[in-house]
Structure formats: structure tokens, C-alpha cells
Amino acid sequence: MSDLSFIRQKYLDYMVSLGHAAVPSAALVPENDPTTLFTSAGMQSMIPYFFGQAHPEGQRVTDSQKCFRADDIEEVGDNRHTTFFEMLGNWSFGDYFKKEQITFVFNFLTRELKLDPHKLYVSCFAGNPELGIDRDDEAATTWQKLFTEVGIDAKIVTDPTQGLQDGRIFFYGEKKNWWSRSGVPANMPEGEPGGPDSEVFYDFGEQKTALADHFHAVDGPCHINCDCGRFLEIGNSVFMQYQKTSQGFVPLAQANIDFGGGLERILAAYQEQPDVFRTAAFWPLIEKIQSFSQYKYDDVEKQKYFRIIADHMKAAVMLMADGVVPASKEQGYVLRRLLRRALRQAAYLDIKQETLVELVPIVVAMYQDAYPALVAQEATISQVLAAEQQKFSKSLHKGLQEFGKMVADKQELTAAIAFKLYESFGFPFEISLEEAQVRGMQIQAGIKEQYQQLKTAHADASRTVSKNTFKSGLADHGDTVVKYHTTTHLLHAALRQVLGESVEQKGSNITADRLRFDFSFNRALTAAEKQQVEELINTWIKADLLVDKQTLPKEEALKSGAIALFVERYPSIVNVYSIGANPNGTKSGVDFISREFCSGPHVAHTGVIGEIVLDKEKAVADGVRRIYALQKSV
Predict the structure, then answer these.
(1) Closest to 504 in 3D by CA, of 598, 417, 334, 624
(2) What pLDDT does 238 receive?
């Protein structure tokens, strides 16, 4: 077992021993949240339970959540930024609170993983009188007591901007020690939950810091939250106890715990390695990439390229395993950016692009113990990657030619040139920047912001032209999304009835404008088949069928005939939605139209959905088709 797998399992076992129920990771694409492209934090699926909704597994829950942060794509290249990562999490929904949580974290790090407590430092919330929230002395004194018990004098520092000052516990303001999905309190919308937090940092020491090429000098004295690289945040306990209202911040009905610990960062501390790419989370990939190239990872000038390839290829495999395929929009566009950027880095290392497909089995081997579905998807992922590589080879060749022409007599890359390359030739912005840097060109000041302005203006113009394309006649987009979600189940059932029960859902995406559904099938639908599917859906909608929800043990739900996409992702207790049937019936062909595992939301009966029309249908991978559905214009 690798150290990566060891730490993940050690954490889950430890939390289970403390009464937590271990639940599977949610998918990287949120199932019921069209407002965000990816799952970027472990708590994303837990929000309802902070407000008192009962979690099926009880008040104590733990998991290792797959996460992806698209905002970090351009940051990858240093020692610590990654796009895909796992977040070790534990939650208390109105059960234990600060003292217990801080003790759990300290004991896990120092007793279970045996990290040296002398290398651990913590931060706490300094308070905000304007919000009516006091300084978190309870958290600070709890930490101080735990350090004292292991023989460490844990001095509390109230002004960390003056340096370490022989301190162990440091108070910071809301920019560092307040957590909500929207950031600092001023940015939080009404209704949003949030709270102070307490972060744990690992000290790699001044000597290791000095030896690492990626660290840069900073102004001012060193403290645990500065950017010198000496200290690495490895965990954050959020005391989720407030909600923002029009009257200010008020306590939630229950005080909650939301802990997130970066698995890869904890691994770096465990292996005493400040470069995350030299740990078990990435080194197998780095070694394979080295075998393709004449260059080595220790070559400082080339190190960035190794890191980008390793990170982007791992993230791409994990995204594709969760149903994302390369496309020109939304999640598919981000995946395409990752693949194409990785493929371009290969050229900087004199690596043949087609060899990168050999990284897929490395990722599968690294993660198959935690995510066994990867094994069955390996061949499909490799096929999609190979197809994307072929497409990009052509566009890259053309794009590089045009890049050369457009900058031939210029000393500077401008936003206008970068956008023209993107809009006309599909040349990614990041690659334009990298090409300019490789050629030693100047880059226009503020190019990212100006490029984004050009892109936004172009998108706005496109929307103006096509604003009526998906007109639904409904003002409430939230209601529309819910209706489309139930339609997804009807579409799945209709496809299986018309094409055969070998058809399986491979992914879906819902917006207020349309429903997108991916399914397994090896050819295009005929016009007659497409019409049959559409007629079935609308027949079921007009019949105003009941949509019934049950909460059942997973095995019982499967025996009842319910089907699930990636069944291993669901916890031991699941929500099952049945459409058009006696929910206590058995699968006999007449007891229900559809019965699926799902976390909702759904309409109460199908009649409210309205007539559906099927739009375009196409192939997205070998054996995988994509079809669109939308409400008929009125």
C-alpha cells in the first residue's frame, strides 16, 4: 500500500473509531448544482445538513472527497499547486464542537500519523467586533492545552505580522481564518452559512526551504501564513455556526464542524517532502514522464513542464472517470484545456504527444483501491485521450504557424492577439502565454484581464444573437432545473425501453436552458428511435405520474430494482426515486416507469414538467452518445 492510500485509509478508520459514518466521495461534477462546474471542496454536498436536515448516516460523517479547482490551472508549476486533490473530511451536524474537533485533529496528526508536534503550528480567528463575533479564545486555549500535554510551550501571538515571536498559536483576521463558500463575510450573500476556522500548518524548516528552488523571497518577517514556503497548511477546522441575514450574522440553530485536510499536503508532511510532486501522490507519474524524455525532473528549467503534465493528466483521468468528455463548453472545455496544455508541455520536454496516453494506467493503479470503477473505465479514457491528441496535433500545428505570423514583427503579446488565436484557431490562452515566454517576448500588462474582457464581450454578443434559442417561458430557473432533473430519469427510462436495457447513464448536466444526457450506445439513433423516445417521455409527463421518494439501505434499494450511476459512490443509506408506480412493488415491468438512486431534487408529479423535445444527438466517445432535451417553446 502506498503512503497515499495508507493515509487516506488511516484517517477514515480513525474517524470511524470515533463514531463517524464513512461515506463515499461525491462525483467531481455536482449532481444537483448547476451553479458550479465542479466539486471544489469537501463540504459542497453537506450544506443542507448544517441547517438541520438529517443526514441519512447520522450526525457524524467522514469521507475522502475528490475535488477539482479550475482556478488553479494556471498556478500549477510550483511545488504545491494542483488542480485535482482529495480532501479528507469529517463533519458534526449539531453533535460535538470545538474542543472535541481540535483534539481529534491533533491526535490524528501526532498519534496516528506520528508527525512531530514540534513542527505543527496553528492559527485561530482574531474576531470582528463589527460582526459581533468575539476572538476565538476557546480554540486557542484548547490548542495550547494539547501542546502543553506533549511538553511544548505554546505561546499565543496576537499580532503575527511581527513574525513568529517564539509563538505556536497565532490570531488572524477574517481574510485568513473565516470560511464560507463566498469567502470573507462582506462577500457572503444573505442565507449563506459560515464561521471562524482554525488551521494547522506544518513547518518544513528553514534549511529545507532554502534548498527548494520554488520558494521565493518575501518582504517582512516570516510567519505561518506568509508566502515564503516554509509553512504548509495541512488542515482546517471550520466552526460552521453562523448564517448571514439582512440583520447581520446570527447563530445557526445548531453548531457544526466542517474539517478539510488536503490528503496530498498531509502526505507531504508525512514524507517530510516540501515538493508535493516528489511524494507518492505524483512521483509514479513523474518517473514515467522522465522515461519518455531526455530531461530529468531535477532540471530546474524543465521542472515546471513535468509538474504540469503530471497534474493535468491525473486530473483529466479523474474527470473523465466521472463522465466528463472534451468539449467546447462547461466541464468539457476545462478538460480540453487540461489535456491540450499537458500535450503542449510534452513538446517542451521533447516527448511525443501520443506517449502521454501511457500515463492513464499509472493514474488508475494509484487510485483503484479507493475508486475501483477506474479499472473498468481505463480503456475508454485512453481512447478519448488518444482522439483528443489527434485533434490537437492538427490545431496546434496550425496555431503555432499563425502565432508565428501574428507576432513576427512584434515584441509583445497582446490580449487582442491571444484572443484572435483562440477565437479563430482554438489556440488556448495559456499556450499563447507560454509560447511568448519561451520566445522571450514581452507580455502586455494586464493581459489576463483584458483577454477575459474580450472573451466576455464576444460571449455577450453571441448570447444576444441566440437569446431565444432555449426560451422556456419560465421565470423561475430553480423550478426549471428541478423539472429537468426529473426529466433525466424519464429520458433514461425511455432510452432503455427503446434501445434495450444495456443502455446505461454515463453522465448528465443540467442548466436552466436544457438537459444534457450521456449514455452507453454504439451507434447514432435513427429518426424513428429518437421520436419513440420523445413520445414516451411526453406520454409519461401527460399521465401526471407520482414521483415517490424512499430512504432505504443500499442493498435493499438494489433488490427493489433501483439502478444507480456509479453505485459504489453511494453511502449505505440512499434516497430512491420511483416514478409512476407503487413504491413497495417489485420490478415486474409494470410497477414503475423509473426507479433510481438519486439525491434529488425532483418534482412531486410529472405533469408539471411540460412538453419536452429532444434536440441534437452525437457521439462523445467510443460507445458513448450524448443527447440534449429542452422544454418546448410556448
Answers:
(1) 624
(2) 96
- pTM of the model as a whole: 0.77
CA nearest 174: which of 163, 161, 187? 187
pLDDT digits (tens, 9 = 90+) for 475-487: 234 688 889 989 9
Q: What is the pLDDT of residue 389?
A: 87
C-alpha distance from residue 398 to each of 170, 307, 342, 405 (Å): 54, 26, 18, 11
Q: At 56, list the grid cell.
A: 441519512
Grid cell for residue 317: 483521468
Query: Which residues fall within 8 angstroms of residue 511, CB to CB, at 6 or more apart?
Result: 34, 481
Backbone phi and psi for residue 248, each to the nearest 5 degrees, phi listed first? 115, -160
pLDDT of residue 434: 82
Q: Which three cell numbers stand for residue 193?
A: 452559512
Contact 582, 591 (CB under 8 A): yes
Total number of residues shown for the chain: 634
**Contact criterion met (CB below 8 Å) for 280 and 4:** yes
Q: Which whole number is the average pLDDT over 586-604?
A: 75
Residues whose CB is less than 8 angstroms from the CB of residue 202 and which lie 6 or more positions away in sequence, other chains included? 115, 119, 120, 231, 232, 234, 265, 268, 269
Domains, the chain: 3-276 (3.30.930.10), 477-631 (3.30.980.10)
C-alpha closest to that of 268 among 184, 212, 204: 204
Largest Cα–Cα distance of the chain, in whole Å?
77
Average pLDDT, the chain: 87
Q: Return d(Cα 83, Cα 68) in angstroms, integer.
A: 5
Residue 436 CB neighbour total at 10 angstroms: 21
What secondary structure does DSSP assign to 259-288, as a single string?
EEEEHHHHHHHHTT-S-GGGSTTTHHHHHH
Q: What 3 state SS string does 112-151 have?
A: HCCCCHHHEEEEEECCEHHHCECCCHHHHHHHHHHHHHCC
- Looking at per-residue pLDDT, the higher value among 429 and 83 belongs to 83
Distance separating the N- and C-terminal Cα atoms of the chain:
59
How far from 2 is each of 232, 271, 365, 370, 437, CA to CA, in Å? 22, 12, 11, 12, 37
What confidence score (pLDDT) does residue 32 get? Answer: 61
pLDDT tens sequence across 431-487: 888 888 888 888 988 898 899 888 888 766 654 633 333 332 222 346 888 899 899
Question: Over 403-472, what HEC string results?
Answer: HHHHHCCCCEECHHHHHHHHHHHCCCHHHHHHHHHHCCCEECCCHHHHHHHHHHHHHHHHHHHHCCCCCC
User: For residue 109, what is the DSSP state?
Assistant: I
How many other CB atoms sit within 10 Å of the CB of residue 66?
Answer: 26
Per the CB < 8 A criterion, the answer to whether 603 and 547 are in contact is yes
Contact criterion met (CB below 8 Å) for 386 and 417:
no
Q: What pLDDT is attached to residue 34?
A: 64
Q: Quick one: average pLDDT of 403-408? A: 82
Nearest to 287 by CA among 215, 365, 209: 365
